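Hello Y.,

Per our agreement to keep a running log of every chain we model this quarter, I'm adding this entry. I've kept the format consistent with earlier entries: sequence first, then predicted structure.
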Amino acid sequence: METETLREFIKLSSTLLLEAFPKQINGLSLRNEWPRCAMYVQHVLSLISHFEKFSLYSQYPGEFQHLAECLSNAAW
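Predicted structure for the entry above:
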């Protein structure tokens, strides 16, 4: 896969995952949302693996903002 195609794939995938992943509201635990979190956390880890494997970096500020937010949600 070409690097530009991979960049777009990661950005689009992270946007979709960010929308699907449960959100913390008012600092409340996501304990009740664990089944939904478990469905998506492996996808977040896979995106990060590809990001690292191909040594990607942001070409402009905020390019991978949704990926960073996915990581934050997955790390609760």
